[in-house]
Amino acid sequence: MQIGGGECVTAGEDGRVNVVGAGEGRMEHRRIHDSNGLASYTAARWGSPAEFATGGVGFGVRWWDQRKPEGLVAQFKGSWGGGGITGMVHSIDIHPSRKHICIVGGSSGTVFAWDLRWQQQPILLSGVGLNGTDQPVSESEVWEVQYDSYTQSSGITSAPSTKILPVMVCSEDGILAVLEQGEDPVELLAEPCAINAFDIDPQNPSDVVCALEWESMAILSRGRDMVAIQ
Q1: Nearest CA among 109, 114, 112, 57 for reference residue 86
Q2: What whole-number distance in Å separates Cα of residue 176 and Cα of residue 190?
Q3: Is there a domain that residue 77 lies in?
Q4: Is residue 227 part of a domain?
Q5: Which of 15, 19, 89, 175 could in theory staple to 171 by disulfide, Cβ–Cβ 3.0 to 4.6 A?
Q6: 155-198 tens-digit pLDDT
Q7: Is residue 221 part of a domain?
Q8: Which residues contact 159 (CB under 8 A, 6 or more apart)?
């Protein structure tokens, strides 16, 4: 769903990309793309009122612009090191001040940044690297990724546009962590069950609400004395 807007982008396993909006009391539907079963989508995120990103199998990521006749303007096929990568994208996030960079999370603990200025040079934050080395924050599915406004609040204005801002992730093996380019991961929670989703309080970004596998929730309050309540 668009932030502050009235349109929703849907991208499904059937390979269809649609934009649905509510106008004058009725639903409006626009088909942006139909891959006819040749591609499958598992995640989507708005980048601007006219642009959005989708992700799918093979860690493929695509950038779409509704103002363009064909819609699709850029794509990354996940062919790192000359070979295909198995797995799929589960989550995408785009920072409002850096819309040229997508953060992508998916299978096997993989988290990477995709910069539209260098479309075939992803920046790996966790997972199997370009040289084959294994450095995941998690060894299972990364269900959600979000830019961490709490960690980045002090340095966002001075950071160069090429630097990847800190990212929070949660995983199937119960890890909630913050990843920062060039730094060791900071583990915030390690639960005995999956952390399926989380949200960072936009008004008080030190607080994080997590949805756990066993129909339960965890509330994390960061600060001088970090506290987790379940």
Answers
A1: 57
A2: 7
A3: yes
A4: no
A5: 175
A6: 555 566 668 999 999 999 999 999 998 888 999 999 999 999 99
A7: no
A8: 152, 165
Domain, as residue range, for 171: 7-196
Residue 149: strand, helix, or coil: helix
DSSP state of 12: -
pTM of the model as a whole: 0.88
CA-CA-CA-CA torsion sign (71, 41, 53, 6): positive
Other C-beta atoms lying within 10 Å of the C-beta of residue 225? 6
* CATH for 51: 2.130.10.10
Task: Give strand pairing partners of 209.
Answer: 199, 219
Written as one letter, the residue type at 126 is: S
Round to whole Å and give the CA distance between 84 and 108. 14
Is there a contact between 90 and 105 (Cβ–Cβ < 8 Å)? yes
Total domains in the chain come to 1
Tell me the pLDDT of the chain (230 aa) as tens digits. 777 678 899 999 999 998 998 766 777 888 888 888 788 899 999 999 999 999 998 889 999 999 988 889 999 987 654 455 578 999 999 998 889 999 999 998 999 999 999 988 889 899 865 455 556 788 899 999 999 989 875 555 556 666 899 999 999 999 999 999 888 899 999 999 999 999 999 999 999 999 999 889 999 998 755 556 65
Q: What is the CA radius of gyration of the chain?
A: 18
Any domain includes 168: yes
112 contacts 76 by C-beta, under 8 angstroms: no
